[in-house]
Every structure is written in C-alpha cells, then in structure tokens.
C-alpha cells in the first residue's frame, strides 16, 4: 500500500488559533505510516517546532495550492472567498450544506476543479452521530463571553476585544474576576440554555456552574421544553440566553422583535449568545440580528427604541478558539480514528457517506449556479 499523505493548511480566518491536527495526533498518524506536511503558521496555537519534532515536514504558509492534487488538504474553517477551482480533496468545515450565504458558489469551486469536500460537520459514525465536534468548548466559551458581556453592560460599557485564554482555569478565573469588578458576582445572575442536553449545551451549563451561578438559576431546556413552539416568555426573564441547538429544519422563533418590544421596561434579558450562529440560515430561530460578530467586536446591539433596555447579541462562529489548545486536542483526538481510515476512504463508511452527501449537495449547487 502506498504511503498516505496529508497536508495541514494554515487558517486564514482572523483570530483562528485552533488546528485540525495537533502534534499528538500527527505523531499517531505518522506512526501509522502517514506522511504529513504542515504549513508554517504563526497564528496557530501549536508552534511549528512542535510538529517538526514529531516528524512532520514543514512547508510554506498557505502553499497548499501547489500540493499534488492527490494529497488531501485538512483544515478547520472555510477557505477565503474566491472563484478559483478546487482540484484537491478538502477536509474542513465549509458551512455550505444548509444553504448558508454563498453556499452554491463554494460548492461550484469543487465542481469546476474536480475536487472533493469532506465536510467535518457531516462526518458521522454508524449510529449517525458526528465523529468529532467542537460543541462542548463552543458552549463553554459562549457562556463565558455572555457573562463578560453582561458585566460590561452593567458597568455601562460595550464588551471589548476578546483574547484566547491559556486554559479553562484561566477562563473561569477571568470571568469571575470581571463579574466581581462590577460588583456583580455570579450569584443572582440567571441564564437559560436551549439545547442543554447536547455537547454545546453541556459546555454552557458547565461554565455557568464553574463561575458560580446557582443551580436553580441555570435553566436547562431541550426538545421537551421547546416542543410547544416559541416565542418563549421565559427567555425574557433571564439575564443571559444561550442558544445551542443544531438547526436542520424550520421551527417557530425562540425570540423575536415584537416580543421584545411588547415586554417594554419589564424585560430582564440583556445578552443573547447564539452559539449556533445560523445568521444566514433561512430557518434562524433568533431573527433579531443579521450579522456575525467577531473577537474584536464581540457584540452587536439589537435595534430597539431608545427608551427600552439595551440588548446585545454575541454571534461569533468560532468561539472554541477562546480555548484553542484544549479545543484542538479534544477535537483532533475524536477525529483521529476516522483519519486513520483515510487510506481506505473509498470503502470506509465514515468517508463514503460523507462523499455521497457531498455529491448530493454539489448537484444542488450546480443547478443553482446554472452550470449544466
């Protein structure tokens, strides 16, 4: 059997410090016979030398277009917008299978270049469960950002630039300290997490617990609680609302402008954290904002009358990079068994299912773009 090559590309999204491979998982792959090229990347949480030390070959930053087309390219976030054809096999989050903004043009690049997309969001095991996800750390970091935004709002300020934390302990202590500086320790803060039984929701609940919210002040909702259909008055009665659901079909909104306006001065809700970030999804259950926020500008205000209490939304689509090392290690560890199957991707179910889905979505995109 020929050597399986794999190319870890750099991340071009601003502030993205996570990595699809870590030195630990790269070494396991090399020990299994893989040959791994790693692009030099000063932004990545792992130093280039850490990869080189375990046997990876370092290559120039953003040089993957020069790789032989039979070498799979692995990364995390979507590639920069372009019309350049894509002849390689790409393993990444592409954010184009749920008809997000620009979805068809992304898939059209693969059609024009003859490449293949294995979308990390849709790699599933025999039971249909995702093999790897950043959900837990997304919820954990999202809840932390929500608490920081609440503290800023209570001090009459807007939440400033968010910086990655060295580890989970540093994040917890940072949130506690910030709440304390505005005379607002976590006791008395009330939060509602929708999707609380999933990975993302569990992460959000854990953060709230660890920074000191009382258990009775953490409302944990999942499908049973939302079955009656929104909008939900209960969301207006907490300080922080964290949305952690995985959206796949149209549902009534959890919260809307009319409901917020009708509540007037009686609304308690101050911060919405949309971890799911379905901003451009036509089924978005939180239609009170229209843009993704960033680490440099973490919040966006909801447009309301001046006489109403302010309300801000956090909609950062790569929240786990606030804990880049821990999030990368966990994700890459979970992805590893599937990567070890990569040499057999024409028969291994995790890869054949992903390729079948790609061709289905690509056909829809080709029709939408009028390429036939």
From TrEMBL:
Domain Alanine dehydrogenase/pyridine nucleotide transhydrogenase NAD(H)-binding: 169-315
GO MF annotations in UniProt: saccharopine dehydrogenase (NAD+, L-lysine-forming) activity
Disulfide bonds: 200-244
Record's keyword terms, sorted: Amino-acid biosynthesis, Disulfide bond, Lysine biosynthesis, NAD, Oxidoreductase
Annotated Gene3D superfamilies: NAD(P)-binding Rossmann-like Domain
Domain of life: Eukaryota
Residues given in the record as NAD(+) binding sites: 129, 198-199, 222, 226, 246, 275, 316-319
Alanine dehydrogenase/pyridine nucleotide transhydrogenase N-terminal domain span: 7-141
Pfam families, per database record: AlaDh_PNT_N
GO BP term, example: lysine biosynthetic process via aminoadipic acid
Active site: residue positions: 77 (proton acceptor), 95 (proton donor)
Listed EC numbers: 1.5.1.7
Catalytic activity: L-saccharopine + NAD(+) + H2O = L-lysine + 2-oxoglutarate + NADH + H(+)
Pathway it works in: Amino-acid biosynthesis; L-lysine biosynthesis via AAA pathway; L-lysine from L-alpha-aminoadipate (fungal route): step 3/3
One Gene Ontology CC term in the entry: cytoplasm
Assembly notes: Monomer.
The family this protein is said to belong to: Belongs to the AlaDH/PNT family.
Protein name: Saccharopine dehydrogenase [NAD(+), L-lysine-forming]
């Amino acid at each position: 059997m020929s050597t399986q090559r794999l190319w870890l590309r750099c991340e071009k999204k601003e502030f993205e410090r996570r990595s699809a491979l870590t030195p630990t998982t790269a070494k396991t792959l090399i020990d299994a016979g893989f040959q791994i090229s790693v692009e030099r990347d000063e932004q990545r949480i792992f130093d280039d030398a850490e990869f080189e030390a375990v046997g990876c070959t370092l290559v120039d930053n953003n040089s993957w277009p020069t790789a032989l087309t039979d070498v799979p390219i692995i990364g995390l976030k979507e590639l920069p917008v372009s019309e350049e054809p894509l002849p390689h096999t790409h393993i990444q989050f592409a954010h184009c299978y749920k008809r997000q903004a620009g979805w068809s043009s992304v898939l059209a690049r693969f059609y024009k270049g003859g490449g293949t997309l294995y979308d990390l969001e849709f790699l599933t095991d025999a039971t249909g469960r995702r093999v790897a996800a950043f959900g837990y750390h997304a919820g954990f970091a999202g809840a932390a950002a929500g608490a920081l935004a609440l503290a800023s709002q209570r001090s009459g300020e807007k939440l400033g630039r968010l910086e990655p934390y060295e580890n989970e302990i540093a994040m917890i202590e940072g949130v506690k300290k910030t709440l304390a500086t505005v005379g607002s320790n976590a006791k008395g803060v009330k939060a509602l997490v929708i999707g609380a039984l999933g990975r993302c929701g569990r992460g959000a609940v854990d953060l709230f617990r660890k920074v000191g919210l009382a258990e009775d002040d953490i409302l944990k909702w999942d499908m049973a609680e939302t079955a009656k259909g929104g909008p939900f008055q209960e969301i207006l009665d907490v300080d922080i609302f964290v949305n952690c659901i995985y959206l796949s079909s149209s549902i009534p909104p959890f919260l809307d402008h009319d409901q917020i306006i009708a509540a007037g001065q009686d609304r308690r809700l101050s911060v919405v954290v949309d971890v799911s970030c379905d901003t451009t999804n036509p089924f978005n259950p939180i239609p009170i904002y229209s843009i993704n926020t960033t680490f440099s500008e973490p919040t966006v205000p909801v447009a309301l009358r001046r006489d109403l209490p302010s309300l801000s939304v956090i909609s950062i689509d790569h929240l786990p990079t606030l804990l880049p090392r821990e999030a990368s290690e966990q994700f890459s560890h979970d992805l590893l068994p599937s990567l070890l199957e990569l040499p057999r991707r024409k028969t291994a179910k995790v890869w054949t299912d992903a390729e079948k889905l790609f061709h289905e979505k690509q056909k829809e995109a080709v029709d939408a773009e009028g390429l036939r």
